[in-house]
From TrEMBL:
GO terms for molecular function: cysteine-type deubiquitinase activity. This is DUSP domain-containing protein. It comes from the Eukaryota. Residues 5-128 form the DUSP domain. PROSITE patterns: DUSP. Coiled coil: none annotated. SUPFAM superfamilies: DUSP-like.
């Protein structure tokens, strides 16, 4: 039998850490906890209570192990989780929190094992239900990777949660319109109904899921189908991910650029030439074309404007006294590449490169940002 002085010391120590032993709450992010049987937990809480509280709760003690000397409850025995496990030693997921078992923080677990010992520790995760905000113990935790157009978030979920339960909080975090977004499977881009449980989804599609706009579903599925067909012929034609923002738009843009340049050099009559004091205005719409090109002679000016929604790269070239100007909208850089050795290359940092005008006054060429 342990000395009463040692028991009093343990009682005082654990009493000061009661917040780690009882009524645990999740802070929104899942964390590791340990499970103990409710019977053992009740005996522990009776042991660390104040003597007056023990005397008052003598008849109502949940553990039902109090004796006539209620001010000196017995020292708890080893932590025994046998009643919580199946015959094969696995934890019985049908057990109910606060009825069959209780939980303690991982931060105090090593100390409890040091004092009382435990042969069969059971560790799980503590989280918050995404809809009810209730603290829940994840007996069958599933790690789900959720990809969005902004970033990827990882969440530990319960197998019995519904897919729709985690869609709304994710939309709130990234300020997406809930009604305009839906989940699709990561590989096949199949629309996932909100009523499917996360456990069923993981069994069928794996641990990755993608949140997309409903208006993009048809486009994403078409891209995925085209990518899948193309890979059977040439695995290097498309990006591995069918998600729109990962699609190799630069490759398409460069192909358009090369075709545009070839057509221009072979058939200059298809483009407008300007001379004298004339001016030209070209409009660009990103949904119709990839590039706009124009020529200007010595005393001319050219103004170009465009509507850039999904534009990845815009190139505007103008031949003016052997100078070539290239505008890269993506990096907001304007580069002057002269063909003559009399001038050196220059780079100008600007926030809004459009519209841009080229003004030639006699022997001096001005780069004018309007």
């Amino acid at each position: 039998m342990m000395e009463s002085g040692f028991q009093d010391q343990i009682r005082q120590e654990l009493r000061g850490r009661s917040a780690e032993l009882n009524n645990l709450r999740s802070n929104g992010q899942s964390r590791k906890i340990f499970i103990v049987s409710k019977f053992w937990h009740d005996s522990l809480m009776d042991f660390i209570k104040e003597p007056a509280a023990n005397a008052f709760d003598d008849k109502e003690s949940a553990s039902n192990i109090m004796n006539n000397n209620s001010t000196n409850p017995p020292f708890p025995g080893p932590i025994d989780n046998t009643s919580l496990c199946l015959s094969n030693g696995e934890f019985d997921t049908k057990k109910i929190y606060k009825k069959d078992f209780m939980i303690v923080e991982a931060s105090i677990w090593s100390r409890l094992v040091e004092i009382f010992s435990c042969k069969s520790p059971v560790a799980r995760r503590l989280s918050v239900h995404p809809i009810t905000s209730c603290t829940v113990v994840l007996l069958d935790p599933i790690i789900l990777e959720r990809e969005t157009s902004k970033e990827t978030r990882i969440k530990t979920c319960s197998a019995d949660w519904f897919v729709g339960d985690i869609r709304r909080p994710l939309c709130v975090v990234f300020r997406f319109v809930y009604a305009d977004h839906t989940f699709v499977s990561y590989e096949t881009n199949e629309v996932i109904p909100d009523t499917m449980t996360i456990g069923d989804y993981v069994k069928k599609f794996g641990n990755k899921i993608r949140l997309v706009e409903k208006a993009q579903v048809a486009e994403i599925q078409q891209i995925y189908s085209s990518s899948k067909n193309a890979k059977s012929k040439n695995s290097n034609n498309y990006s591995k991910s069918p998600f729109p923002h990962n699609y190799d738009t630069f490759t398409q843009a460069n192909n358009i650029s090369n075709n545009y340049s070839n057509n221009y050099s072979n058939n200059k009559s298809n483009y407008s030439n300007y001379s004298g004091n004339s001016s030209c205005s070209s409009s660009y719409n990103s949904t119709n074309s990839g590039y706009v090109s124009g020529n200007s002679s010595s005393n001319s000016s050219c103004l170009s404007s465009y509507n850039n929604k999904n534009l990845m790269k815009l190139k505007l070239t103008s031949t003016l006294q052997n100078l070539t100007f290239q505008i890269d909208e993506g990096s907001e850089i304007i580069t002057v590449n002269p063909n003559s050795t009399k001038h050196s290359s220059s780079t100008y940092q600007i926030k809004h490169p459009n519209p841009v005008g080229l003004i030639n006054n006699g022997n001096t060429c001005y780069f004018n940002v309007l």
